Amino acid sequence: MTKKWNEEHIEAAEEVMNFARATGNEKFAEMIKDLFEIKEKPIFDTSSSVFLNLSEPLNIGCNVQGYKLEDGVRYPFYSVEGDIREFEKLHSTVKEMRVGNAETS
Predict the structure, then answer these.
(1) Using only C-alpha atoms, what is the Rg of the chain?
(2) E strands in the chain
(3) Do 38 and 69 touch, CB atoms closer than 8 A?
(4) pTM of the model as a whole
(5) What are the pLDDT tens digits along the chain (105 aa)?
(6) Do 58 and 101 belong to one domain?
(7) Is residue 34 located within the same domain as residue 54?
(8) How many whole angstroms separate alpha carbon 58 and alpha carbon 16?
(9) Which domain holds residue 12?
(10) Residue 78 bridge partners (DSSP)
């Protein structure tokens, strides 16, 4: 098999690799990475994300659906899911934070 990949081939392979990882198929993702000699771009660190940190204890599911590449960094796209009560709790939490900030400023 020839290894004359153009940029479009590499981009498509990266999408397949990322999808494979997102669906738990790490071995397939590594095979794609090796075959296309992909140099992975760093993923934005979401460990300090206010939204994700507030959503977790409320059992709001946040799942990576893909990435947006900007300035050499991959920023994750999330889908969120939960019942309306969980989102109402999140809204109340954020509203309390805003009120608290306004009173202390």
Answers:
(1) 19
(2) 61-70, 73-81
(3) no
(4) 0.63
(5) 556 889 899 989 988 998 898 889 999 999 999 999 998 889 999 999 999 999 999 999 999 888 898 999 989 999 999 999 999 999 999 998 877 665 443
(6) yes
(7) no
(8) 32
(9) 1-40
(10) 64
